[in-house]
Amino acid sequence: MAARLKQLQSKACQATQFVSKHGSAYYKQLVEQNKQYIQQPPTVEKCNELSKQLFYTRLASIPGRYESFWKEVDYVKHMWKNRHELKVEDAGIAALFGLECFAWYCAGEIVGRGFTFTGYYV
C-alpha cells in the first residue's frame, strides 16, 4: 500500500510539473484561438449584462421548446397508434432508449446515495 501511495505521489508530482511548464502556453493559445468570444472591456457590468442576456434568451426560447416537445409527443402517439406497422429497428431503438433512461436513473440514485450500493448482499 505504501508503494502504491509513493507511486501516486510521483505521478501527481510529474503532472504538476507538466502543467506548470506548459499550462501558461496552453492558456495563451486557447485565449488567442477564441478571442472572438471575448467581450471588451472585461468588466463586472459586462458580465452581468451577458448573464442577463443569456437568461432572457433562454426564457424566450421556452415557447419553441414547448412546441417541439408536443410535436415529439404527437409523433410517439402516432407511432403507438400504428404500432402494427412498426419495424424491428424502430422497436430496438425505443428499447435501447428506455434502457439508457433506466441506466441513467440507476446511476443518479447511486450518486445521490454517495456512491454506496444498498440492498445488495454480497
TrEMBL record:
GO BP terms: ATP biosynthetic process; proton transmembrane transport
Keyword entries, A-Z: ATP synthesis, CF(0), Hydrogen ion transport, Ion transport, Membrane, Mitochondrion, Transport
Superkingdom of origin: Eukaryota
Primary localization: mitochondrion
Keyword Mitochondrion: yes
One Gene Ontology term, aspect cellular component: proton-transporting ATP synthase complex
Keyword Signal: no
Record-stated family: Belongs to the ATPase g subunit family.
Protein name: Mitochondrial ATP synthase subunit G protein
Organism: Cinchona calisaya
